[in-house]
């Protein structure tokens, strides 16, 4: 193996399709090793630092467990217990943290924060969710689609609900992989055009129409982290946007349902859908572990001939 020049994963469009195809292939191999209890320790003595400025269950667990499984160590930092919460400049944090570890994951608010951190980092930085992007989740979701249905290229994916970090990462994925998004967001909660750099989508006012013929129906919470003050107002505006059995019936007969979790049954998704036969939400969650192990391996070791 050879060590590649430092590369970050700050948004989905940072990788080419060829790089994603490599990472997805590795994720499948790494997943098989894990399921077979095969010891695979390519990252002995390597350390991942995880910086969390927002809550997490899946992201923390998958990165921390994943790094241990690869033979390395993971350190958890949050805003409250570190100097980040007391106003240490993010540029200084990037300089200091990156001198003590081999790779960094950050979950924070504005994308500008992770961009400034990465510009000052001597090691690769991975976006574990910002207000604008959640690329690791969409990578896990594309891998999950691939496992269930094969390539996502040329397919139609419906996005029902908020124009949030997940949608912007899905839009970038549509451009990279060559699929189409049908997007239905409520009035007043439309996409921010400055975050959209693809034409591979169609806007729908009616969420049921957006599901027509889709191979995958996708939704997410109506109130993302950091927007809690808008919750009551959002509950009213999003009325009618629940993904229920009637909307799933408009999709292709073999359509999958995805949700990055955590979910709110009775709000953005009906229990019959998320707990029903078309739902692959637990696979999406598990696959965070496998794709992120492949991502870390790629960022630290480059391509492995295997
Ligand atoms: N889907 C996801 O990123 O979950 P957590 O907020 O629990 O990390
Ligand atoms: N859009 C959600 C995703 C949570 C994993 C949020 O940002 O809170």
Summarize it:
The chain is α/β, with parallel strands linked by helices. It has 11 helices and 9 strands.
From the alpha-carbon coordinates, what is the Rg to the nearest angstrom?
19 Å
The largest sheet is: 5 strands, parallel
Count all strands and give the number.
9
Oligomer: single chain
Helical content class: 25-40%
Low-confidence stretches: none
Based on CA inertia axes, which overall geometry fits? Answer: globular
Residue share in β-strands: 5-15%
Associated small molecules: phosphoric acid mono(formamide)ester, norvaline
Number of helices: 11
Strand order of the largest sheet: 7-6-5-8-9
Distance between the ends: 10 Å
> What's the overall average pLDDT, rounded?
97
Structural commentary:
Keywords: Cytoplasm, Transferase. Reversibly catalyzes the transfer of the carbamoyl group from carbamoyl phosphate (CP) to the N(epsilon) atom of ornithine (ORN) to produce L-citrulline. This is Ornithine carbamoyltransferase. It catalyses: carbamoyl phosphate + L-ornithine = L-citrulline + phosphate + H(+). It is globular and about 50 Å long. Helix 2 crosses helix 11, helix 5 packs across helix 6 and helix 5 crosses helix 11. It has eleven helices and nine strands. A five-stranded parallel beta sheet has the order 7-6-5-8-9. A four-stranded parallel beta sheet has the order 2-1-3-4, sandwiched between helices. It has 306 residues and is of the alpha/beta class. The chain starts with 16 loop residues before the first helix and ends in a 5-residue tail after the last helix. The site of norvaline has 9 residues, from helix 6. Phosphoric acid mono(formamide)ester binds next to helix 2.
């Amino acid at each position: 193996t050879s060590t590649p020049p430092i590369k970050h994963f700050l948004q989905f469009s940072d990788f080419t399709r060829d790089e994603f195809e490599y990472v997805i292939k590795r994720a499948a191999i790494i997943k098989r090793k894990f399921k077979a209890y095969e010891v695979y320790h390519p990252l002995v003595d390597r350390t991942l630092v995880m910086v969390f400025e927002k809550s997490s269950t899946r992201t923390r667990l998958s990165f921390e467990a994943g790094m241990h499984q690869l033979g390395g160590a993971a350190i958890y930092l949050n805003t409250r217990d570190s100097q980040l919460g007391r106003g240490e400049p993010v540029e200084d944090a990037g300089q200091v943290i990156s001198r003590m570890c081999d790779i960094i994951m950050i979950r924070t608010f504005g994308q500008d924060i992770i961009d400034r951190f990465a510009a000052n980092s001597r090691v690769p930085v991975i976006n574990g969710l910002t207000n604008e992007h959640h690329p690791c989740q969409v990578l896990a979701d594309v891998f999950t689609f691939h496992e269930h249905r094969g390539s996502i290229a040329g397919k139609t994916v419906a996005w029902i609900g908020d124009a949030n970090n997940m949608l912007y990462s899905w839009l970038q994925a549509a451009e990279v992989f060559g699929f189409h998004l049908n997007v239905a967001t409520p009035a007043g909660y439309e996409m921010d055009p400055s975050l959209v750099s693809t034409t591979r989508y169609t806007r729908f006012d009616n969420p049921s129409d957006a599901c027509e013929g889709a191979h995958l129906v996708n939704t997410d919470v109506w109130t993302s982290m950091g927007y809690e003050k808008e919750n009551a107002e959002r509950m009213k505006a999003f009325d009618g946007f629940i993904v229920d059995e009637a909307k799933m019936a408009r999709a292709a007969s073999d359509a999958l349902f995805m949700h990055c979790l955590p979910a709110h049954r009775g709000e953005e998704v009906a229990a019959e859908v998320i707990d029903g036969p078309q739902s692959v939400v637990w696979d999406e969650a598990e696959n965070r572990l496998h794709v992120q192990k492949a991502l870390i391996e790629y960022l630290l070791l480059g391509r492995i001939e295997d």
